[in-house]
Amino acid sequence: MGEQAWTTGERKSREATRGQTEPLAALVSIAAICAALSLYAGVTTDVISDSGDERDVAEATMNGLWADIHEDGVFDPEVASLGEAVKVQSLPEGQSVRATVTVVGENGRLRTVDRATFGQDGKPGRRAEPPESATTVSRSVPVRVDIGDVRPGRLTVVVWE
User: Fold this and answer.
1) What DSSP state is assigned to residue 131?
2) What are the residues facing 112 on neighbouring strands?
């Protein structure tokens, strides 16, 4: 009752006409999508490459410094200070770098565990103040503050010309 009996031939012809589109219209829409994606990728690449160069140098420097100063994933200032542990190859050529490792002390205040400033020649040097235009990056690092006492700390790297 109310059901319509379809013959096999009618069902096949009805299914064959549903959901189809013209091949030319499909090709044009695919071409438009590809063109839009290409334009978006080109603009995005230009914007990111213009704004990210200085930060990339600072992040690469921070990663190189961390590789130099940690032992088994923990920074221990008693094993070697920043000035002793950092290799010249980890520093960017022609730029000055300041590295600081801090932890939260017993009194709840931020305490500097170690700090080093490297000149443009890559040697530890005087404690020059970085300009406001310097690029700063930081990351969390574990710091050994005493025997059996490892606390969360922060490695901050400032890079400038």
Assistant:
1) P
2) 102
| Cα–Cα dist 8/45, whole Å | 55
Would you say how long the chain is, in residues? 161
Q: Which amino acid is at 93?
A: E
Higher-confidence residue of 1 and 88: namely 88
pLDDT at 23 over 90: no
Q: Is the dihedral of CA 35, 38, 42, 44 positive or negative?
A: positive
What is the tens place of the pLDDT at every residue in 71-107?
889 999 888 888 888 898 889 988 899 999 999 888 8
First to last CA, the chain: 86
Q: What's the whole-model pTM score?
A: 0.64
Assess contact for 112 and 118: CB atoms under 8 A.
Answer: no
Looking at residue 15, its amino acid is E
Q: Map tokens 């044009």 to a residue.
A: 28
